[in-house]
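Archive entry. Fields below.
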Amino acid sequence: MVSTAAAPAESTAVQAEPKKRAVTIKDIAKVAGVHFTTVSLALRDHPSLLPATKARIREVAAQMGYVPNPVFSALTHFHLNGRVRAAAQRVAYLINHPLDQGAALYRPQQQIIEGAREQARALGYELEVVTVGVEGNESLRLDAFLKEQKITGVVLGAFDPGFAPVTLDWDEYSIVKIDSLHMDPPAPVVGSDHRQDVRLAFQRLRTLGYRRIGLAIGRADEDATERLYTAGYLLEQGAVPAEERIPELLFPYNCSMGQAADLLRNWIRAHRVDAVLCNWSVIGEMLRSAGLLVPQEVACASLCLLDRNSGLAGVCPNPGVVGAKAVSIVAALLKSGERGVPQFASRTYVKSFWTDGASAPAKTTQP
Amino acid sequence: MKPHGERPRPARTRTYATMNDVAALAGVHPTTVSMALRSHPSIPAATRERILESARQVGYVRDPLLDAFNHHRLQKLAVKQTTSIAFVIDAGSSAYFFGSGYHPLVYEGVRAVAEAQHLLLDVFPLGTKDMTAARLNTILTSRGISGVLVSTFTPETKSIELDWDQFSAVKIESHHLLPQLDVVSNDQCQAARLCMRSLRQRGYRRIGLATATDDESRLVSTFTSGVLVEQASMPARERVPPLLFERGDIAEVAARVSAWIREHKVDALMTNWHELLEIGAWDGESTRLTSTSIRVPQDVAFASLDVPSGTPHIGGIVQNHRLVGMRAMEQLSLLVRTFRRGAPENPSATCVPGYWRDGATVPPKTL
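PREDICTED_STRUCTURE:
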């Protein structure tokens, strides 16, 4: 067994103070030849210092093994806030449409917020839901609001397309996005694991006896997820005989329900599809309006099943976990002091689960 | 930072619930509350649930000042009670990372975060004669270690039998390994996609992926999914079927790879297998594929999907192993702090992207 508790490098270029006491910012200041308040600013990545200066001071601090004293951090908090119990630091959750409109449509958003709120509490933060963009460009006001409230952690909720995008001075915030891979800024993202969702559904439909499984997906959703659905679909197709591989159907941008139904009907007939996988939860109604009997003529499963008791089979996302995960990542960024758009933004995918339904019963004709 | 005088005083000045309030409501001693909140094993689950419910009712939240104070105080005591994290590594995994500094880099990231957060890190190699899962379980329990970071394990290890309900845990890379925990890994899908795009930009038109079948299972087929999804938007004549080979003798593997290169007229080989390249044989202009006469880059370009350190002539994707370690440790620290023990119901996967690096093994293609 190897014990790996801190093993400081002995011979650093900088002469460290005797090991008796912890390194303070004054020690760093002496070595770096600056005032200790400059050290403080540098460690907090304050914009008033030159990047080169900050880098130099941080280098010295790292070499001397400086770590912030948790007691002083807490005391400073106490001092600045004027009482023993500090108000919980807040994390903003930005949405670009009011939640009270179209309750059913926005239920996943509400579940995301619930998950985020609960996790924020567990981590000692408080979640503040902020609605933006309803009256047009509010980005400037938003920036002012967040600064005034001293909110530096921001979760960008799953934004509805068609609303004005939010632009902030991203360098000032620790940011995590929900879902929208394509949207600016290129910050860390948390969302459902669409690639695995397709694989899960495909495999389950195969087990149920379906052999001509086709993926029908909105072009807009494909672009927004950088073709994750297709990635999963192609992987699964690689595992089935070539004659059972159906080319995917892409609904164009701004496709009406009528157009989509026509496209679906033609595609199903042309490729003798026996089960349709679709990321739209209204796939059942679309097939019926295309004049097809579900499940007698064609089975279907949704890749984003919001209601588990609708009779529709499909993959249920976990919005609560997505929200919780987003807050966890913001908290980690806040804790390590990472602000702005990172050079390497991570992506976190939350696993979904399958629910059987009347729209895709087990095929009885299988041997 | 603004002068103190300008700082608005927080509006809320309510009093805060303490553990005593929770104890009064739940009808237990305050120490029982403390133990319940820490998910101490001596408190029955039903009692804990009841106390947590009481805590929710009275709105109890942890006090950051006292947390910090306790941390400081415990450090001064003769018996230190710092939170320890177990970094469990696979004793048999070193052969899988030939030539890449994979493990040391991940470990460096893990350690950096652990030090910044005052967590002690203990490394436990698992799978030797002396260290079985059962013994590890005993050690972790007796030392009061509640956080377990599971490092990359080879596909031979299918599961690790610890009493997981006692531990908060995060896995690195090993998607195949049970139980299903939150995973942090390199974004192999993104690596494959970025590699293909970069190779296309440099003029290559017959780009082929060769990797081991068990690498793909360990990484849930992510290299392949990236290649397939990129190929979907390329002309059919450019789609080289990926070669998945069984792990085995390197001469046999190289023979299969070279046959595949000839059969499919591959002009750029993408792989995570550095054994395929005679790394040491680079003469400034050229080297060969191991035990073949195929010259690199004259006959075929070689793009690594995980460029090893200390090999400036190799071009390809550099993976952020250090960042993977950091992200994993950050997530684990949050789980430990919030007492989330056991395998989560809905695990998530966090992917860290890599970046392209030019190298002499992948020169721009001249016609």
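CURATOR_NOTE: Chain B touches chain A through 63 residues (CB under 8 Å).
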